[in-house]
Amino acid sequence: MRHDHVITSKHLSRADVETVLDRAAEIAADPSAVADRHAGALLGLLFFEPSTRTKLSFETAMKRLGGDVVDMGSVESSSVTKGETLADTVRVIEGYTDALVLRHPKEGAATMASEFVDVPLLNAGDGAGQHPTQTLLDLYTIRENAGLDDLTIGIMGDLKYGRTVHSLAYALSNFDTRQHFISPESLQLPREVVYDLHQQQGGRTGIREHQRLEAVLGDLDVLYVTRIQRERFPDESEYRKVAGEYQIDRETLEAASDDLTVMHPLPRVDEIAPEVDDTEYAAYFEQAHNGVPVRMALLDLLLSEDGGGSDE
């Protein structure tokens, strides 16, 4: 696989996903085998929103491949404060690097930026839109714990603004999955996403929506929990209506299958109690750690001259 850019999981085929995940598994088994594979390569980090796991795992991934990173730094310390456009910013930093990683608060920003650069651009989150590299590490974690076919997954929390949810739902439609979406009515999946998922599944009824977890918990192989994202709400009063409504603790999980895998893209607030961390259900720290081999695999495929493939 060699895509010029990775902008949305909607355009990742099953073959694309499996190529990345298989490569990640190889790297995880023997990281030293790729230690100097991309010596001299530079990855540009452009984060217009705060990030811990995504930014650090991309930096770690590039360095473990033998390359290095250049970091735009905070928006406040960049030329953005002088009025520089995103198009000009990516054009400039493209000249210093072999690939770019962009996080931006505006949905569609990564698509727009990709039109102005020739090096690979990876979308690290664009507002409430997409987060495809998070999806790839999520799929890797799911495959390691529960497999990706004949899978029943519950996705719970902020489904309206959650870009990790949108990305994951699209990618899962490539596999034999039953997706249950659990949220307050005000935070349901956008109707256009539901429509797209039905279309991608060819009319199969693998999608269900619920307001209560209890209705489906016992049937789930995976429970993917997301944070209610305060920063995405245009109205603080609307956030307060739903904050803390969905919480997982040991008592909740008494009704779950013994084989349930609980995931979370992190950061969490209070949606998963710390008492769950030490149970066999918890896979969210493993999930975060998987960001390194998966992003190593993705960068390796994007930067390799023999990668082959098509746009996006």
Describe, in short, the structure shown:
The chain is α/β, with parallel strands linked by helices. The chain contains ten helices and ten strands.
Q: What spatial order of strands do you see in the largest sheet?
A: 1-5-4-2-3
Radius of gyration over all CA atoms, rounded: 19 Å
**End-to-end distance:** 10 Å
Output the structural class. Answer: alpha/beta
Which ranges are low-confidence, i.e. pLDDT below 50, for 5 or more consecutive residues? 306-312
Mean of pLDDT? 89
CA-based shape: globular
The CATH homologous superfamily of the largest domain is termed Aspartate/ornithine carbamoyltransferase
What is the succession of H and E elements?
EHEHEHEHEHEHEHEEHEHH
Biggest beta-sheet profile: 5 strands, parallel
The total of helices stands at 10
CATH architecture type of the largest domain: 3-Layer(aba) Sandwich
Number of individual domains: 2
Descriptors:
312 residues, alpha/beta, Rossmann fold, 2 domains, 5-stranded parallel beta sheet, 10 helices, globular, disordered C terminus
Would you mind describing this structure in some detail?
This protein is α/β, with parallel strands linked by helices and 312 residues long. It folds into 2 domains: 9-130 and 291-305, Rossmann fold (3-Layer(aba) Sandwich); 132-288, Rossmann fold, CATH 3.40.50. It contains 10 helices and 10 strands. The protein has a 5-stranded parallel β-sheet, sandwiched between helices. A 5-stranded parallel β-sheet has the order 8-7-6-9-10. α8 links the parallel β9 and β10 (261-263). α1 (14-29) crosses α10 (291-303), α2 (53-64) crosses α10 (291-303) and α5 (132-145) crosses α6 (163-172). Mean pLDDT is 89; it is low at 306-312.
